[in-house]
Write a structure and sequence with these properties.
The complex is a heterodimer of chains A (499) and B (148). Chain A has 499 residues and is an all-alpha fold. Helix content of chain A is 72%, strand content 1%. The termini of chain A are far apart. In chain B, helix 4 runs antiparallel to helix 5. Classes of the chains: A mainly alpha (499), B mainly alpha (148).
Chain lengths: 499, 148
């Protein structure tokens, strides 16, 4: 194995490949930062450019885009509360409040470092323990996926400590929205009212953009025309722009835990960086000594989201490279890239093309370094957007929201959906309904429904399937424990008289 | 438009939101009657749960929360209308012209000091966004006359 790793190193370390990795990472960061342009779109746009390249160079470029775009989503999430990709939706919860407190540069630097640590961890896992992890991932069937979705939905309790009822309503609303479109089992359209564009369901990105970004812009329109205090002090130097020693001590456990969560979620086919970041965020909040600060600009919350979503980059390639099963949409497009270059993923890929495969994995390490360098340079430029007058920022953000929503499918229905979700988000958030629960419902709803319906088909209608399978039973026990623990915490907190 | 133009209402808004969600749940539950059994199963569970929680919230807020004064900045309402109008005109008249007009309207709404500078920035930003999306990312944005 180590000979193959050295062979990979020698293959990837050429001027051309390093240049392509940097170019890909740069392009990925831009694509990720722009709302409406997804990681999948960025990779798909660049696949044709790789036709004339040798396989390793082409894959290195695509890997750079993949890695860069997941980090890039955090930039707009932190600065203008618009998640550039779905993977950064949890980053908005604390990233933007940090910007509002004048800690925008600190947030960007923290996100960059967390993304680096998460990204390297994910690639490390891919390099050294891919095959046994892939076998573990294969043991997950519909009952396990359903239980993961339910476990994820119990996060609603953690996210809605202020008002459990409001959190539940938000989560259920999100799950209901996810049922719009074709039914996954029978294939009939539900709640589409004859609108063809809704047959595929409510698209996630426009809904995200609307709930977070457009809703925020509606709020901003009434504010005074003053420069937003996005950051205080200088863009140069480290004072106030990097986590202090005290903050490092606070976040070290989260930095250790979040990449593990992201890796576990990432290896599961169908579970992507968006789920990883939300699950990680919730676990960080549950285990934090200061959970009340989450949602108000907690550096822990930001670290949890970013470390988890970047670790998915490497781990999502585990089922792809070892079994030929893409872990998410982005790795599905990468599968296309592999096939174009004559590489057939599966058990024999590592044996037949070791220098290419290991070279590709090592290119992801280098892509993380490229992300760090480009990110540090970018941190001196990105926050300049905060110096813009609010009056100019409002139409720019609105136009980006509209164009981004349109760009997904060249479809105006998506833009209208974005606007409607913006209104919904504005109304709900003004009455302290946690938007995070709505997003959680939209993301996890399809996984829950598919898992439940397929499980019931497998068991011919018997619900015992969820307790007969050991893994499903373990997840069910974890769900029950997690729910009871969270409810108990809320009960204790509310029964302690306030000072 | 002046900063102080607000619309004030004294309502128990939580009650009305939860009641609206309850009504919507009932309506959509009614729609599930027309689906096949398998297709209706999951949505029915969710709608029942949503209906019950929103009803619980409506009852709770009616009993325990007093109506409070909610103020709506008229500029926010106008902005939402302008955004919908912008999207409609974007689909009919292309990207550039409606985007520039939208910029100008928002700057006017916000009493922006230097309108000449604002128009210049509107034009420049619109052209940059158009060029970036359509030429670099190959996203075919609508052009004037494309709806004929």
């Amino acid at each position: 194995m180590f000979e193959n790793i050295f062979a990979g190193f020698s293959s990837i370390l050429t001027i051309t490949n390093i240049t392509l990795i940097f170019l890909g990472t740069f392009a990925g960061i831009i694509v990720g930062a722009l709302p409406g342009l997804s990681t999948t779109m960025g990779i798909a746009l660049c696949v044709p450019f790789t036709f004339g390249m040798d396989p390793l160079s082409g894959l290195a470029l695509l890997g750079g885009i993949y890695n860069g775009s997941v980090y890039g989503g955090s930039i707009s999430a932190i600065l203008i509360r618009t998640p550039g990709t779905a993977a950064s939706c949890a980053t908005t919860f604390d990233g933007y409040p940090m910007t509002q407190k004048g800690q925008g540069v600190l947030a960007l630097n923290t996100a960059l470092i967390s993304s680096l640590i998460g990204g390297i961890f994910g690639v490390f896992v891919l390099l050294f323990i891919a095959p046994p992890l892939a076998a573990f991932a294969l043991s997950f069937g519909p009952p396990e996926y359903f239980m993961i979705a339910v476990l994820g939905l119990t996060i609603i309790i953690t996210l809605s400590e202020e008002s459990l009822l409001k959190g539940l309503i938000g989560g259920l609303l999100g799950v209901f929205v996810a049922t719009i479109g074709f039914d996954p089992i029978v294939g009939i359209p539900r709640f589409t009212f004859g609108i063809v564009e809704l047959y595929d369901g409510i698209p996630l990105i426009p809904a995200l953009i609307g709930l977070f970004s457009f809703a925020q812009v509606i709020r901003l329109i009434g504010k005074k025309d003053s420069i937003d205090e996005g950051f205080k002090g200088s863009l140069k130097g480290t004072k106030g722009n990097f986590p202090s020693w005290k903050e490092w001590k606070t976040i070290r456990k989260t930095l250790f835990r979040s990449p593990i969560i992201g890796t576990i979620v990432g290896i599961l086919p169908g579970a992507g960086a968006d789920i990883a970041s939300i699950v990680s965020y919730s676990e960080a909040k549950r285990n934090s000594l200061t959970p009340e600060q989450f949602g108000t600009g907690s550096i822990e919350g930001l670290v949890a989201s970013e470390a988890a979503n970047n670790s998915v980059v490497g781990s999502s390639l585990v089922p792809l490279l070892t079994l030929g099963v893409p872990g998410n949409a982005a790795s599905a497009v990468l599968l296309g890239g592999l096939l174009i270059h004559g590489l057939f993923p599966g058990p024999f890929l590592f044996a037949e093309n070791p220098s290419v495969v290991y070279g590709f994995i090592i290119s992801l390490f280098i892509a993380n370094v490229a992300m760090l360098i480009l990110g540090f340079v970018g941190v001196r430029v990105f926050p300049l957007v905060l110096k813009m007058s609010t009056s100019l920022l409002i139409p720019v953000i609105t136009v980006l929201c509209v164009t981004g929503s349109y760009a997904i499918n060249n479809n105006f229905t998506h833009v209208v959906i974005m606007l409607l979700f913006g209104l919904l988000g504005y109304v709900l958030e003004s009455q302290k309904f946690p938007l995070a629960t709505v997003i959680l419902g939209i993301i996890l709803g399809p996984m829950a429904e598919n898992g439940l319906m397929q499980s019931l088909v497998m068991s011919r209608g018997s619900w015992m399937i969820f307790v007969e399978r050991p893994l499903s039973l373990a997840l069910l026990s974890l769900t029950v424990f997690s729910t009871v623990y969270s409810l108990r915490k809320i009960y204790i907190k509310k029964s302690v008289p306030s000072k | 438009m002046s900063e102080t133009e607000v619309l004030e209402l004294k309502v128990n808004i939580d009650f009305y939101i939860s009641l609206s969600i309850f009504v919507v749940s009932c309506v959509f539950f009614f729609f599930t009657k027309g689906f096949e059994e398998d297709a209706a199963f999951f949505p029915k569970i969710i709608l029942v749960a949503l209906g019950l929680t929103s009803l619980a919230m409506a009852v709770f807020t009616k009993k325990n929360i007093k109506p409070e004064i909610i103020s709506f900045d008229l500029r926010s309402i106008f902005f939402v209308i302008a955004s919908f109008a912008y999207v409609f005109s974007f689909s009919k008249f292309g990207f550039l012209l409606p985007t520039v007009l939208f910029f100008v309207i928002i700057l006017k709404l916000r009493d922006y000091n230097n309108m000449k500078k604002g128009i210049f920035i509107s034009l420049g930003t619109s052209i940059c966004i158009y060029y970036f999306f359509s030429r670099i990312l190959f996203v075919p944005l609508p052009r004037l006359g494309s709806w004929f």
